[in-house]
């Protein structure tokens, strides 16, 4: 049985959030008792507000690509998880150093763990890149991703990604990979898909179910849930028949 459906927010749900069929699908999953999880590179506070605007009443929120997890939607959060808490101080120091050096030429996403830095222009971006590479070379437990389109970087603990995030959630809920469906459309979703879950995408080759767009992804979710329900019912039927034999 499918017990959890994971949605990437950034390029999967967010661009289509005003569509009634998307909202209705999410609410119908919730009504069936299937847990919903939303994952993003954005902070958990942003993700929580966005998900609530969809009419969802309960969900697991994963922000900063797996670095911070909220196990309930509304505030106050009753249970949280922060990946590599002991490394947060080092990242905070890096952010302060960059801010003091570049002042108004750099902007930071308001994260709680990772450092997401956006440069004013490509020249500043090149300078910031050198500083980040120097930091990572002397702090082997950190890595960074670069987005040239946005002149931005994300610096994070090396072992923190969406795959690590789903492992924490599955462990907390007592789930196995076949009980989870994941939908994603960015390179950040690759670690999530490598965890052995049912994966759906229209851009990532590691997904085991290929679709063309969000609508097809939603249809595939319904199809997988239906298949799992039929399989479960057939097992119950054969078990009951075996007991009577």
What would you note in describing this structure?
This protein is of the alpha/beta class and 245 residues long. The chain is 43% helix and 20% strand. It has 8 helices and 12 strands. The model is unreliable at 233-243 (pLDDT under 50).
Short description:
This protein is an alpha/beta fold.
What characteristics describe this protein?
4-stranded antiparallel sheet; 12 strands; single chain; about 240 residues; 8-stranded mixed sheet; alpha/beta; about 45% helix
Computed Rg: 20 Å
Largest sheet: 8 strands, mixed
Helix content: 40-55%
* Strand arrangement in the largest pleated sheet: 5-4-3-2-1-10-11-12
Task: Count up the helices.
Answer: 8
Q: Which regions contain 5 or more consecutive residues with pLDDT less than 50?
A: 233-243
Order of helices and strands: EHHEHEEEHEEHEEHEHEEH
What is the number of beta strands? 12
Multimer state: single chain
Distance, first to last CA = 26 Å
Q: Per the principal axes of the C-alpha atoms, what is the gross shape?
A: elongated
Whole-number mean pLDDT: 89
The chain-level structural class is: alpha/beta
- Tell me the strand percentage band: 15-25%
């Amino acid at each position: 049985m499918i017990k959890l459906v994971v949605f990437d927010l950034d390029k999967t749900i967010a661009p289509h959030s005003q569509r009634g069929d998307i909202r209705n699908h999410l609410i119908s999953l919730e009504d069936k008792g299937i847990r919903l999880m939303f994952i993003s590179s954005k902070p958990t506070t942003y993700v929580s507000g966005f998900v609530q605007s969809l009419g969802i009443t309960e969900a697991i929120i994963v922000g900063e690509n797996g670095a911070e997890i909220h196990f309930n939607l509304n505030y106050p959060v009753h249970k949280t998880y922060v990946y590599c808490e002991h490394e947060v101080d080092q990242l905070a120091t890096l952010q302060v150093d960059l801010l003091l050096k570049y002042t108004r030429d750099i902007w930071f996403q308001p994260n709680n763990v990772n450092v997401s830095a956006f440069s004013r222009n490509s020249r500043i971006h090149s300078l910031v890149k050198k500083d980040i590479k120097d930091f990572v070379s002397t702090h082997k437990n950190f890595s960074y991703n670069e987005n040239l389109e946005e002149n931005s970087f994300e610096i994070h603990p090396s072992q923190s990604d969406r795959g690590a995030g789903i492992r924490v959630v599955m462990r907390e809920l007592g789930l196995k990979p076949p009980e989870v469906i994941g939908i994603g459309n960015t390179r950040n979703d690759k670690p999530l898909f490598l965890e052995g879950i049912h994966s759906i995408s229209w851009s990532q080759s590691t997904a085991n179910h290929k679709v063309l767009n969000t609508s097809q992804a939603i249809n595939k979710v319904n199809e997988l849930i239906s298949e799992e329900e039929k399989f479960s019912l057939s097992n119950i039927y054969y078990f009951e028949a075996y007991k009577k034999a």
